[in-house]
Design brief:
Blueprint (H helix, E strand, L loop, with lengths): L4 H12 L5 E6 L2 E6 L2 E7 L4 E5 L3 H7 L4 E2 L9 E5 L5 H15 L2 H9 L1
Antiparallel strand pairs: 1-2, 2-3, 3-4, 4-6, 5-6
């Protein structure tokens, strides 16, 4: 996605905030996106990364280990780090919407699908 953080945050907000139930607030002094009070995406501004909730991180990491990876901190959690410099906008959008679906209630998913 190789872009500045302002453009990246605009992309994140444009993708996530229209989804039912999504809120943005700070998490350890960095922007994060929640649904049902559950974090689904946490931006790491200094490192130009985003930590995303995912149930398929092995698939993504196998496809591109430079872009998709974990550190020891995330080993026991269902999160994956995504390098903003190298992720494609299409992949990032897919991951963000999937993270939302993984955390949203069936009611919220139904609202989204009715649009």
């Amino acid at each position: 996605m190789a872009t500045d953080m302002l453009t990246f945050m605009q992309f994140m907000r444009a993708t996530l905030l229209p989804l039912p139930g999504v809120t943005e607030k700070m998490h350890f002094e960095e922007p994060a996106f929640y649904v049902n009070k559950k974090i689904m995406a946490n931006v790491k501004l200094k490192d130009e990364l985003v930590a995303l909730h995912t149930l398929e991180r092995e698939k993504w990491m196998a496809a591109d280990p430079h872009t998709f990876f974990i550190t020891d901190h995330y080993r026991n959690y269902k999160y994956m780090l995504v390098r903003l410099e190298t992720v494609s906008p299409d992949d990032l959008k897919e991951l963000l919407i999937t993270a939302w679906r993984n955390r949203a209630t069936q009611k919220l998913i139904g609202e989204y699908e009715e649009r």
